[in-house]
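Same chain as my last thread, 734 residues:
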Amino acid sequence: MTVEIRNIPPSQTAPTSEEEIDLNRIAGLIVDHKWTIIGVTALFATLGTLYALLATPIYQSDALVQVEKESPLTTPMLNVNSLLGDSLPQADGERRIMMSRHVLGQAVTDERLDVMIEPKLVPLIGGFLVRSEFTRPEFARGSSMVWAGEDVGIGHLDVDPVYQGEPFTLRVVDAQSYALSFEGRVLGIGVIDEPASFLDGKVNLTVDRIEAPTGAEFDITQSSVLVAVDDLRKRFSVAAEGQETGVMSLYLNDPDPERARRALSSIVQLYLAQNIERSSAQAAQSLEFLQQQIPKIRDQLDQAENALSQYRTQHGSIDLPLENQSILQRLVNVDSQITDLEFSEADISTRFQRNHPTYAALLQKKSQLQRERDALNRQINGLPDTQQQMLRMQRDVGVNQEVYVQLMNRMEEANIARASTVGNVRIIDDASVKPTPIAPKRALIVVISLLLGAIIGVVWVVLRGIFNRGVESAEEIEGLDLPVYTTVPASSEQAKLTRKVRSGKKDKLVSADLLARRFPGDQSIEALRNLRTSLHFAMLESRDKALMITGPSPDIGKSFVCMNLAAVCAQAGQRVLLIDADMRKGYLHHTFKLSGRPGLSELLSNTATQAEVIHPTGIEGLDLLPRGGLPPNPSELLMQPSLQLLLESAKDSYDLVIIDSPPVLAVTDAGIIGHQVGTTLLVARFQRNTRKEIDVARKRLINAGVSVKGVILNAVERKATTVYSYGHYEYRYG
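reply #2:
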């Protein structure tokens, strides 16, 4: 017969750094908690799928418009582009015009977007049922919930500003009438196609259509125009197609596809109308300016002609040399251009600031012409006085004649422009709605939900494993200078013996039978047999035969170790007394199917004798002293001399006394008991008790004068965390 112990490393190469160990631990945590991660992922995927199915679909309407460089008939006073060269329309400015209250507010009014009709649907799934065309079932007759195919039409709604944004409830009375309520109070009854007034005229309503059975309810709300415009602006967007095309795409999102199409079509038409109106207004403004200037220029022309005629009468005919006539012609042209620019400046000054590029270019052009005129005047000043005077008078006549003719021509152009203004906007594509909703994107939502669930599951498992890390190997405990007497594997058979019992007002899980009796060959029992052998040598130098087993915290399997250790010691021929010293939550009597009273609490309070409280367990050599009744002062009872007398008397009757003590960090009982026994062991649960808890428990016992002999590592599982981080041992017997 041979026993072989093989150390199986976690990988071909042992970890060489703390970083590698941490990564291995993370991998182990993920493997150990794979079902938790799968569960979280499935939960998120389910929630994502439900959201994708139940969320209200959003449809998108789109249109395409083009803003040209200039309208076919421009403002007659000044072609701005002639001063700056070709320039493209300002897309951002046009986009702001489209999204202005002037345009969107009119669209809200025209399409009644400030009136919302919301049917009362079945909670959560009502929208899905309506979209899936589920008609009203028989059991829902008379219900206020609205089903597929049920609707009402509002012809007119006018609400006082005090009640704007407040929902009114319209309840169908029959096919021809309805009742209107506000905050649960019925305001009155109305008939379709007949105007009705409620709240002393503050609510005026006309219902033109009822296509719903009796009892169906709809919430009707009229918001202010500003609120409706803000809501419309959030759902409306404009995007320029390219940098130099002047083409813009318009988009509008809405749960109702037909409403989206109508609203966007209204916006496009209103934008086109305001563009035409804006161009026509510019032409009218120029025409008004021309009508004011022409009489003034006519008077100046008459005065210049009269002055020239009088001068000729006084001085007779004066012949000008050919060179002087050329100077005169050039001077007339320059003065004419300057006068033209001055008129244009007066026109555009009402629309632009002086630092505007158009205005600046005009001033630069005017300055250049003025310098040229000054040069010609200097040439004239060198001529004889008679010729100078004649040139100046002829110049005045020529300039005024040319300006007068130009103004007359431009006034005619302005009349034509005002009468035939078409704007510089073209509708390329009318508003239309895509057949499928743009949101929610169901496939994408499900995929994102899966990924999010997996990420959250992994992060939660890893963080919990990192920040709530319990001991996982004997080496971790031995690092605290505490020997580990044995590691007890977790038993799958023990879980079958667990049942619930009533403890006070709560249910408590206890063992219905003893594992050492039902499954004596279990690995956990074999580990306790190893502990029995170790204790034999550990207690040789002890002052008595008493062993206290305690732990840092509750629910770590301390009582399981006590009961089964007592059983395997008794099975080896020893006489063992098992004492349940947890007078708060002890349950050992349930496992042995004994009465809990009388017990330790009665013995310590001198209301029962040892013979009355010690009971045989059915296992030869093993007796049990149960906890007894629940006393109000367990710690004070343990400090009575009765406990020491019990332990003294047990020396003669038993080979071993095992005391199941309450947790160290919960109450002070363990320190009191441990002070009166020779040997104390701590139980630590695998992956639950941390090194710090074990160390604090030991120090607390030391402060009470109790020396901890060692530790029992309980409920050890073969998990990926420990395999990857520490390797594992495989035992073969044969």
